[in-house]
Design brief:
heterotrimer, A alpha+beta (182), B alpha/beta (125), C alpha+beta (176), A: 22% strand, B: alpha/beta, 3 helices, 40% helix, 34% strand
Chain lengths: 182, 125, 176
């Protein structure tokens, strides 16, 4: 039988994952993940600009899962997860967290919208969204997603997976950052 | 003789060797991968000390943690001190402080004290 | 992205805190430690235990996983940390090549059979040589250190996946 080490190693190998963290997220953990990524990027020898992009996207995504790691009543039916992937030409930052089934459409529509825009439109949309969020405070209006898409300069990818719950699904989000600065 | 000071980092200790106070202090954590480069100035300083008769020196170790690569270099330092002590240019005394809850560190200090012939005091703090 | 959920499942079931796959270059061992430190600092553990975990991870990353890096560009090693009843388990797997495999096989066999006193004696003998350490001596020092720190709770096995030899060490540190 395959050992757990083999199981994890084999998934990591196939996905080119370099770090997997699953468990509670708090500011200290976020900081140490950032620290690790920084060391990693320095070792890879990428441009400072790429480092900065990566850092920004990671901060946004890690804070996002820190916020959404619990289900409504501070309970945990599934652990949030953070995966860092290094491919030949780019890095992926992937997060997973529970999502209320009735919120799925709302979230995926926001991402689809963000993905449909070109960089210029995205910039405009960001300004608009920031303005709107100040006035109406409708829970960020997807500011986070806009920010991730702008900083990563690539489309966001997402997935929705069934878990053992009626009310929740598992939501995964992936951002891609090119190793070569444009 | 000149003072030797190296500030502490996340993986290297503070080195504070002061000829006026006749004290040599090593404080913090030691886990660099390239230990040889890090400790080279320390060993050089000890070479100068050997040539400079100036009295009674104390080595004060306050190490929280060290890796096996450092453990070799630490013994190199202790052996240099032993050379100096037995050579007669200066007398040496070693004071090794450790967190008294850390039994592994206490053991490590005891092992070192058995490996070198220099007055050696181990203090649990 | 189904793998995210899959990893989460395997990790949660096994109480894993973190999994790293790398060739553990210089800079990285420091950040590995930072993560672990942050992670275990929240849990009230004794300073001896903390230093033991630290020590074991440092030796794994700096010596077991990184000596003789012929394939430095590949991510040949994996390091997992999991919580077990009354302690922590550090699991490390690293790709090893022909000569090192034979050498480590023999060394580990010998090492696990040694008494603590014999281990210390051998360790001190190596430390007392005033020469640069050989790769073999470095391996021995690291493994002896791991065994002593874990109070003998070090298991090893050789695995073969996809034609590649893998040395796996399982080290348990118990809260007394």
């Amino acid at each position: 039988m395959e050992s757990t080490l083999q199981q994890i190693h084999s998934i990591m190998n196939h996905q080119n994952a370099v770090l997997v963290y699953s468990g509670e997220f708090n500011q200290d953990i976020v900081k140490s993940m950032l620290n690790y990524a920084e060391g990693k990027l320095t070792a890879t020898g990428v441009d400072d600009l790429v480092k900065k992009k990566m850092f920004n996207v990671m901060v946004e995504m890690l804070q996002n899962i820190t916020k959404h790691q619990f289900t409504s009543d501070q309970e945990k039916i599934v652990e949030p997860c953070f995966v860092l992937i290094e491919n030949e030409e780019d890095f992926n930052v992937v997060t997973g967290n529970p999502i209320r089934t009735d919120k799925i459409t709302l979230v995926t529509e926001k991402i689809d919208k963000v993905n449909s825009l070109n960089p210029e439109e995205l910039k405009e949309f960001y300004k608009q969204a920031r303005l709107n969020s100040r006035i109406s405070d409708v829970g960020g209006a997807g500011l986070g997603f806009i920010d991730m898409a702008r900083k990563s300069e690539n489309k966001l990818e997402y997935g929705i997976f069934a878990i053992d719950s009626d009310e929740y699904n598992y939501f995964t989000l992936k951002a891609t950052i090119n190793k070569l600065a444009n | 003789m000149e003072k030797l000071f190296i500030a502490k980092t996340e993986d290297t200790p503070e080195i504070d060797f002061c000829p006026d106070a006749k004290e040599m202090k090593i404080t913090g954590r030691s886990l660099p991968e390239d230990v040889t480069t890090f400790y080279a100035p320390v060993l050089e300083w000890l070479d100068v000390l050997e040539e400079t008769p100036s009295g009674h020196f104390k080595l004060i170790v306050n190490l929280e943690y060290f890796n096996t690569a450092s453990s070799k270099l630490i013994l190199d330092i202790l052996m240099r001190l032993e050379d100096i002590h037995t050579g007669g240019s200066n007398t040496i005394e070693i004071i090794w402080n450790y967190d008294q809850r850390d039994t592994d560190m206490e053991e490590a200090a005891e092992e070192y004290s058995e490996l070198v012939e220099v007055p050696f005091t181990i203090v649990g703090i | 992205m189904n793998y995210t959920l899959e990893l989460q499942k395997v990790m949660t079931e096994g109480n894993y805190l973190i999994a790293l796959r790398d060739n553990f270059e210089d800079l990285l061992s420091r950040s590995v430690l930072t993560i672990i430190e942050r992670k275990i600092e929240g849990e009230e553990i004794d300073v001896t235990i903390k230093n033991k975990i630290f020590g074991v991870v440092v030796e794994c990353v700096q010596n077991i996983c990184s000596s003789e890096q012929q394939h430095a560009s590949k991510k040949d090693s994996v390091l997992l940390i999991r919580r077990v009843d009354n302690g922590y388990l550090v699991e490390v797997g690293t790709l090893i090549h022909g000569e090192r495999k034979a050498r480590l096989d023999g060394m580990l066999n010998e090492l696990v059979a040694m008494t603590d006193d014999a281990l210390r004696l051998n360790k001190n003998e190596i430390l007392s040589t005033r020469k640069e350490l050989t790769l073999e001596q470095r391996d021995f020092l690291a493994l002896a250190d791991i065994r002593l720190r874990s109070e003998g709770n070090m298991k090893y096995r050789m695995e073969e996946h996809e034609g590649i030899h893998f040395l796996v060490l399982e080290i348990t540190i118990y809260n007394n």
